[in-house]
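BUG: 3D viewer hangs when loading the predicted structure for this chain

Environment: internal workstation, default settings.
Expected: structure renders.
Actual: progress bar stalls at 90%.

Input used:
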Amino acid sequence: MGDVTVLWTSEEAVAATGGRCKTPWTARGVSIDTRTLRRGDLFVALSAQRDGHDFVAEALARGAAAALVSRRPDGVDKDAPLLRVDDVQAGLEALGRWSRARMRGRVVAVTGSVGKTSTKEMLRKVLGGQGHCHAAEASYNNHWGVPLTLARMPAQSDFAVIEIGMNHPGEIAPLSRMARPDIGIVTTVAPAHLAAFESLEGIAREKASIFEGLAPGGTAIVNGDLPTTPILVAAAEAAGAQVRTFGEASTNHHRVTSIRIGDHATVAEGRAWREPVVYKVSVPGRHFAVNAMAVLAAAHALGLDRARALCDLGLWQPPAGRGLREVIALDPVETTHTLELIDDAYNANPTSVEAALEVLAAASVIHGIGRKAQGRRVAYLGDMGELGHDEAARHAALAELPHMARLDVVHCVGPLMRGLYDALPADRRGRWTETAAQMAASVPRDLDAGDVVLVKGSNYMGLSRLVDAIRKMGQAAIASEE
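Structure tokens produced before the viewer hung:
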């Protein structure tokens, strides 16, 4: 969207929300945060940790076109460009629904216990190669993130990709009905958020509720390799959707038959469009290759050019914190003295940890360049949140994963990861600390040139501190040379 594009007029926003506005305005964007607000944005005064009304004056001073409010805040002129509604959250939702109604392109919605953000970004890359594609920023997938993404959507978009998440029962269906997707994708159903659900089947039913919002004649794309696949398929059929399955089993419509995980890419073979297909994603990981097949299934349902979709898929790379790999130079003179970092510190549950360990197990280390003769595969694993009553056992059970046998050292962070630490064989057991800050202090002593290191944990554990500490090992090397 260019700087001169009008996203909302005051007249249209009043019609959408049923609000009241004295001063006309036009907005080029929508913001909920004065720190990232751009001149010409409509500022939405949501109340979360703090009341957004406290920031309206600052937003207007920074160049906001107007503010969506439920009252005139103190210090704001009575003639200021305010759109007044009874409830700001409801007003944002109304803007989202109106924006969806005026958009003539097609919408893809994505949910899943693991992989929804990376799948959304793969879709952004593939769909964006064949038209204007609007997609959510970061993980804007909750009760305010979905309507905000919709409210920011230009009416002329050819495609939109909406990520829908959940923490509790009943959250996905209303967001899906707001987005009214033409295609709904469920990447997987895994034991995440079990604290709020009684069983994996309960999680599957919640994920399947994404199909309740499908537009008439819509397509449901579901992982066909799961014990809970029948729940997903039944819900999709009940919604009148065309059902397409993807995965590695031979029964899937779009199936992956071969996956080769390299150090910097994954190459897969399979069958899509009822024809053989070979494709690449520029990141290691079986789960990326499997979810890429869901992206290809969506591209087929949308009637996109197959060759271009495959090429664009190969160009996608994950953002920081989601499996991004980078080389850290440890010596400014000996340029071969490096280690490799796999930054996956944003989220964790048993399924995603297993996938990340498979990537680490397949990584190529370099021998003979560090203090130690052998390069090593090193993991820093932090607590996995919201796993329910048997969370301690689920952490300890990670020790039994087959890929663990290929690792050299496993460091554990957090009270729950103490269970894994105790279950590890002595020759693989690294250090255990309660917090990421405690672990980060000794990171430079843990690692050496030639190592490949994975950092993986739930976001609330703050393992990004470890990522920063590893990166600083490279910065320290540069500083010592200056």
